[in-house]
Amino acid sequence: MEIKHITDSPLSACSARTLIKRLLLVYLLSLLTGMIVLHAENIFIFNRSFHDLMPLKAPLTLLAILAGTLVLAGISNWRLGPVFLALGGDHSEQATRSALERLFRLPYELLIGLKISGLIVLVMYHGILLIRTGIIHGMQQFDWLSLFGALAGEMSLVITVAILIFTSVRWLLRPIILQLQPWPGSFIGRASIAHPLLFTFASTFLVALLHLFRLAVIAGASHDPDYTIKFGQIALFYFVMGLALFYYVTLQFRRELRGLVRSIRGLVGGRRQLSGKMPVISHDEAGELAVAFNELQSRIDREYESLERELKLAYNVQQKLLPPGDLTIGSYRIVARCQPYREVGGDFFDVVSLSPGRFAVMIGDVSGKGMPAALLMSALLLLFRAEIRRNGSPGQVLQRMNRQICEAMGNEGSVSIGVGVIDLTADTVQYASAGHLSPYIVMADGGFRGVDCSSLPIGFDAEAVYEEVSLQLHPGDRFVLYTDGLIEAVDEEGKMYSFEGLESELSTWQAREDIVQRVDSWLVRMDQRSGAGSDDRTVVILELAGPYRSALSQLDAVASERGDAAQFIQNQFMSREWSIPSRLGEERAVALELGEWIEESWPESNIREDVQSAMAEAMINAIEHGNKLHPSTYVTVLAQIGSRLAVFKIYDEGGGYFPRASKAEEEMTKKRESDDPRGWGLVIIDSLADYWATGRDDRGFYTELYFLRKIKPS
């Protein structure tokens, strides 16, 4: 198993020579510090010279310090052999594990070794001194209490130097430990976090006890009446030295624990750390916790990356479900922008073509954010497309959607939706809202007005009824739909954009400016003002262009006033559409309107009554046989009249029938000769229409009737 190493460490190119040099410096400075402390203690406290304490001269003392430094460096070089192999290029798991274990153990080996070796040297030194004194003066005259006091003071100095080396070496080896991360395999054979704390704090406590013992010995041997003040000075000196040593030791552990706490808080706070693993800097519970944390971090990173891929896929699916942001349908230009707060959101919009003369526009906002809102949004988008093609007014479409959402989800979710159906021939908008924010109409002269129309959001009450309003648009008018993420955007000062901000923006719109550039610049300014915000933002704008509508509007003028538009109109199919519930009698008004429209379009023709009768029979057939008189179903009539041909389609929601069998000549003859009234509708249609057929498209089953333009006989 190959281990990847961190290469941005300060010691990424560290060699054995560099490491040994640094260890030499640490050992030398620590030993010199001990000798300086000893020298200061004897000069300023005990009024002795350095020569009185040590029989060796200063050069020999420095030589002894240098020799001790070289011995410690040699031992370190021997113990760190596996580390040098790992740094030299052996990145196998076994080599890395062995190197890390040596790095973890070396400070403790030095601490224990210095204490033991220091005690042995001091015992040997004072033993030799004792033998010499006994030979010269006799053992009875030897001051044993002073001997133990001196031994205690010197041993406290040895322990102090050992603690300095222990903490300094741990700090020095930390970059190399980081260089050899991550910890390979499982964390087996660890020590306890109590061991280093026990070693260091027990050592500092022992230093304090040894100093107190030495002070007691000195105080007992002194007969100076002013020694109480001097005793306080000595105690203060040792207290300051012990406090400094204690702070130096605890500072190292404090830094390590702080790094551990920061990493854990970062994970709890949701901050990603794909490249920021927690270093394993000790072979104890803290190190094991770091290893477990890194494993958890790696697992979270993998799951996060998987979630990111899923969210990206969901975002792509969501974007594919939404229509293009820039559309042109007839004389209307549609601009839509949807900015999700997260990768996926709950805002949505749609534009659906219903016929050559009608289309629907919708905007919605699912309560909540993120993936749950996105899933519900996708389902609602598909549900809307299915329901809007089943015919019915915007209010009826919302009713059907509401019933299905209430049945499927109960009270667990709510959605605000606004639906508008636009008639291209009349430039009218039939609009209904289910708890959505009121839209605006920005007029060509620069004024604007809100449209008051709202009911309960979808998902609250299965029997809710949705009001509708009919709006008349004029060339240059803009119909503006939006979601609450736009209104509730807050700037750095905590000020909400609000309806005042929206109306202030709408008041600056000019009729001749490009609506796409205007909307895009508006949203850019919103981002600069409020940032990404805390909710999805969606805006849909319908702009009625002038030329196409102005030509069609001349249909209402007399022939002499049509001018150049007359030739244009003669070659166009004009479309109208009706949607009626499946109740007998509803077809009469539509049949009368169709007859009047035929007479207006073809004044010289004599087929008005034929059209009315055939269309009435076709609608009755759709109501009775197609929809089975079910009150929740609808029949849609799509009419197109050209210069020489009129085509009418009657849609129902039934299963249909076979047109060839229904239109067979023999079957028609049998129906004419039969006394049974059933089937006479098709006979009437076949007799009055020039041609008829049945079929099915994405809107459902239909019966299609054709009428040729016929001139009245003179």
UniProtKB/TrEMBL annotation:
The keyword Phosphoprotein applies. PROSITE patterns: HAMP. Residues 251-305 form the HAMP domain. It is found in: Cell membrane. CDD domains: HAMP, HATPase_RsbW-like. It comes from the Bacteria. GO terms for cellular component: plasma membrane. Pfam families: HATPase_c_2 (PF13581), SpoIIE (PF07228). Keywords: Cell membrane, Hydrolase, Kinase, Membrane, Phosphoprotein, Transferase, Transmembrane, Transmembrane helix. One of its GO terms (molecular function) is phosphatase activity. The chain crosses the membrane at residues 25-46, 58-78, 110-132, 144-173, 193-213, 234-253. One of its GO terms (biological process) is signal transduction. Gene3D superfamilies: 6.10.340.10, Histidine kinase-like ATPase, C-terminal domain (3.30.565.10), PPM-type phosphatase domain (3.60.40.10). Its main location: membrane. It is a multi-pass membrane protein. InterPro entries: Bact_Sigma-Reg (IPR052016), HAMP_dom (IPR003660), HATPase_C_sf (IPR036890), HATPase_dom (IPR003594), PPM-type-like_dom_sf (IPR036457), PPM-type_phosphatase-like_dom (IPR001932). PANTHER family: STAGE II SPORULATION PROTEIN E, STAGE II SPORULATION PROTEIN E-RELATED. This is HAMP domain-containing protein. It comes from Paenibacillus nasutitermitis.
